[in-house]
User: Fold this.
Amino acid sequence: MPLTKDSPATVGVAEEVEARRPQAATHATEAAGPASASVMLLRLLRAAQPVSRAELARRLGVNRSTVTDTFKPLIAAGVVREEAVQPSRQDGARALGRPAVALSFDDGQDYFAGVNVGVRHSTVGLATINGEVLAEEEFDTPSEPGDALRRVVSVVERLRGRARGRKLRMVGVSVPGPTDATRRRVVYAPHLGWDDVDLAGALCFGEDGAECGTESAVPVAVENDATAAALYEAHLRLGRAESGRLEDFVLVRSGTGIGLGLVLGGEVYRGGGLGAGHAGEFGHMTIVAGGKPCVCGNRGCWERYASASSASALYVGDRVQLGGQAAPRFVEIVARAEAGELRAQRTLERVGEYLGIGIANVITGLGVPRVIVSGRLVYGWKFISEPLRGAVAQSMAGRLSGWSVEPGEASGAGLGGALEVAVEGFITSGLGV
Assistant:
């Protein structure tokens, strides 16, 4: 039940036991609609904490009573805490007067699990709502989905021992492929070879170490990795924004493949109806007619030329061998470019040009001029950015005023994004708002 001015203060999150426990495993994985003022306040609090009630009201443009009604039961339940913050003058000295009261999340009780399923490596981590990582482990991704998911369960259960005294509230999973409308299954992950896999059903964890069951299961939300990275970037930018509302942006995640996350009106867009979870599959649009074959069955796909993994093929070119050595990985190509190797530098420049061609198509097609690039490509940004922007400038998109392309955080494309899926799911449904 939403916490609004008209809601009784003792309903929903105000009750100590039921308020802070998700009501059903499926509730937290339902596709989110437009956010209520309460959800937006919770997001802003987490991004900008510690922050006063007055500042929250100003940045979101809501009444102080809305802020008070939202946080009063959360403070009583111990989810949010109050603390005195002494204001400072511009010269650095402490200002006189009564200290302001600021709000922040209490991160001493709960924790969240993030699972980033990668094509080569997967990462599992536990973190608090404020982003403190409690434990983390990486392993090679097994090829069979059953083996991979059993490994994830084993790792999560082992890491939970490092979070004793806290409660696991939500599990977030990021996967390289579109998900179904309920955000429980991956529909198809071409680079993994996984087809219609019930991830949420396989990742069952009981609360407080209890045996997993319908009533005690911790909610699991499954998200496309590009959408997860978009959630991560939205959280970071919300904390820096002057207001509590974000500009629309497109996130381009480049790793083994390319995926897109779309944020409109401060909300991640996943598609509608039966198409929910399928939005953003631009990595398989054709940019080179009759070009290189792709795992999807098409030829000339964008990700075959502009992903981090494509850099190795571009570096090798038409040569069959490299003196018996394996083709270098992306990070190695970046290191060689940094050391002054011209072949490596030219490779990254070509990746940047191909990336710009696709981004120009995205800007023109979606009408969203702001683009953030996430993933491993960020490590080679100094070589990629200029040819990327040149390709956009030469296109129809380049004639639009105000377009921009900027690097994001590489960690958002991995474990950071998966953990953000978990926390966002908890905020929008686990708290009952």
